[in-house]
Amino acid sequence: MLEKNSRIALDAAIVDEAILSRRSVRAFLPDMVDDETIRDILTVAARAPSGTNMQPWRVYVTKGDVKQRISDAILNSGIRAEKAEWDEYRYYPDQFFEPYLSRRRANGFGLYGAIGIGRREVDRMRAQHDRNFIFFDAPVGMIFTVDRRLNKGSWIDYGMFLQNIMVAARGRGLHTCPQAAFAPYHRQIRPVLNIPDEEIVVCGMALGYEDTSKPENEFRTDRAPLEDWVTFAE
């Protein structure tokens, strides 16, 4: 029994570390990630649960020239992020309210503060946001899509699949950044990847090795205490 409990504790520590060390990294090293590792991560992630095992995810893995073409198509579109049209689905509410407004502001101020961008430096904020579209210099950029005929349950399943990718990446010493910012630029992305019209662009994700020398990677978000959002009922 003691040996079993020790093994359980060790397994829990490994899993917990992968989850707790996951964060949105916004500066990557150019070191390439080999295809076998990417395949392993996606294979593991695909064990995510999905209603009636529909497995609604579809992934476009990009590197090199193709990844650059996606970046160029978006950055040369002339469509600023604040003007981009969320016409396939809406990620955020039209009007933020508490407690979400305060959390959003703390996140933005914390990130920009870490890299020395003041609250009125709009041009520098835009430049930082545009780094989304070069996948924060990560060597691998993934675009995720879902069949538009599917319903909300499949989007819940999709979230579990995305989390699996990010946790599996941590287990291999890699980092990620999930990026909803790509979604409103589906018109620019579609022709590059030949994405069919029946697929909605859900998000992108950067994958690679963290550049620990960059100040933006020193920023850490906090989490609300359990008492704020958990109800125990017996």
UniProtKB/TrEMBL annotation:
One Pfam family named in its UniProt record: Nitroreductase
SUPFAM superfamilies per the UniProt record, alphabetical: FMN-dependent nitroreductase-like
Domain called Nitroreductase: residue spans: 19-209
Gene3D superfamilies per the UniProt record, alphabetical: NADH Oxidase
Signal peptide positions on this chain: none
Record key words, sorted: Oxidoreductase
Family: Belongs to the nitroreductase family.
PANTHER family cross-referenced by the UniProt entry: NAD(P)H NITROREDUCTASE YDGI-RELATED (PTHR43673), NADH DEHYDROGENASE_NAD(P)H NITROREDUCTASE XCC3605-RELATED (PTHR43673:SF10)
Name of the protein described by the UniProt record: Nitroreductase
Naturally occurring in which organism (per UniProt): Mesorhizobium album
Source species taxonomy: Bacteria, Pseudomonadati, Pseudomonadota, Alphaproteobacteria, Hyphomicrobiales
